[in-house]
Specification:
The protein is mostly helical. The protein has 16 helices and three strands. A three-stranded antiparallel β-sheet has the order 2-1-3, covered by helices on one side.
Length: 407
């Protein structure tokens, strides 16, 4: 009971920024986690520092931490550790250099855990939202083998390669999505504002309108009469579809299988998934992580449920003594080239090197496909928009042409 009371009365520790002078008169600055300014001041005095200023660090604000922030942090940490900068000091430098307050708080929390004796991998595992199992396993392997800086460098390369592939896929999909959105807005404006104006003009003609014009006017009347139902259903349907895709495992499997079968884009997605799969396994295996344990992280890192299921099957087969290539062949999802590279790697004892070569090949394939798609999609989309909008315009001008012919 007394312990609980004491814990309840103890002030909550926060981070304070301080500035002062050391024994040589040099101005020094830093951060410290403590329960109050008096605690900070007493701690600094014991270190021989004459305190000039202490202030509580602001904890509000800041953008959400993204994968790019973690990749930049990993690269910076690897670079500084390679240069011989101590781990805690490296965290201090990176945290102060971050422009995102949330990232600074995250790094400070990890740094304080490490300072109290917690291993770096265990500190990372406390933040699974930002550091996945693959990241933590590689860091743990680096700590165990005494090659942390080398594995951080390998991890930074892996993250940079993965982000590059995702960026290429997004750039390939961004243009058609943007054009579809613009086309929807333009068609909405035409249906609600333009066609009703034409309808009033046509009502004074007194003659029978052409079939295409009647069809477009009927669509406009339906749109203007039920827009308050159409818009909520459309946007609500998209929202619930995306949420079910994100949360339902069955939906993820169905959609990921469907995505792999889409003409042109399916091949692009398939190659990007294979590139991530081979890159992840290569990175894990080169770090000394046992194959069965490495496969735990590979399936999720691929970003596709079909390959995640295949990886689980491979892991079960490998754990019972099957060769990796044999297990990969049994899934039926890997291309012949990857299987041959894996077979050569197993026979020669250089599996990580051969998988890395396969990853580089498919990354280049993705790059070339994105460049080709960018040049191919532009005329294709222009033709579709021309047919849609041009068809509506021609339909609305047909009565005018007919009237001119009569006159």
């Amino acid at each position: 009971m007394a312990t609980a009371t004491a814990a309840a009365r103890s002030p909550k520790e926060v981070i304070f920024e301080w500035e002062g002078k050391d024994k040589n008169g040099k101005i020094v600055r830093g951060e410290i986690r403590a329960g109050g300014e008096s605690v900070v001041s007493a701690s600094l005095r014991r270190q021989g520092i004459l305190v000039n200023k202490i202030k509580k660090r602001r904890t509000s604000g800041g953008k959400a931490i993204k994968q790019k922030d973690i990749a930049i942090f990993t690269r910076q940490l690897a670079t500084m550790m390679k240069a011989g900068v101590p781990l805690l000091q490296s965290f201090d430098i990176v945290a102060r250099g971050s422009t995102n307050p949330r990232m600074t708080r995250l790094l400070t929390d990890i740094r304080n855990d490490v300072e109290t004796g917690t291993s770096l991998s265990s500190s990372f595992r406390k933040h699974p939202l930002h550091f996945d199992a693959l990241y933590c396993n590689l860091v743990e392997a680096g700590e165990t083998g005494g090659i942390l800086e080398a594995l951080l460098d390998r991890l930074a390369i892996y993250q940079e390669k993965t982000m590059a592939i995702k960026a290429k896929i997004k750039s390939a999909l961004m243009y058609p999505v943007a054009v579809i959105v613009v086309a929807f807005v333009v068609l909405t404006v035409i249906m609600i504002f333009v066609i009703p104006a034409f309808k009033q003009v046509f009502s004074s003609f007194g003659g029978e309108l052409p079939a295409p014009t009647l069809a477009v006017i009927a669509m406009s009347e339906f749109f203007t009469g039920w827009w308050y139902v159409i818009f909520p259903l459309l946007f609500g349907g998209i929202y619930f579809f995306l949420e079910s895709w994100k949360r339902s495992e069955k939906m993820q499997v169905v959609m990921d299988r469907l995505l792999l079968k889409i003409p042109i884009f399916g091949d692009l997605i398939n190659k990007s998934v294979i590139a991530r799969w081979t890159r992840t396994l290569s990175t894990m295996f080169a770090a000394g992580v046992p194959l069965v344990e490495a496969l735990d992280s590979v399936g999720g890192a691929s970003g596709n449920a079909v390959y995640a299921i295949a990886t689980e099957q491979i892991q079960r087969d490998v754990s019972t003594g099957s060769a990796l290539t044999t297990s990969m062949t049994a899934t039926g999802v890997f291309p012949t080239m990857v299987l041959q590279m894996a077979a050569i790697g197993e026979e020669s004892g250089s599996l990580d090197h051969m998988l890395a070569k396969a990853a580089e090949f498919y990354e280049e394939e993705v790059d070339e496909m994105v460049k080709g798609l960018s040049s191919l999609m532009e005329p294709f989309i222009i033709v579709i928009l021309g047919v849609l909008i041009g068809g509506i315009v021609v339909s609305m001008y047909l009565p005018i042409f007919k009237l001119g012919a009569v006159v």
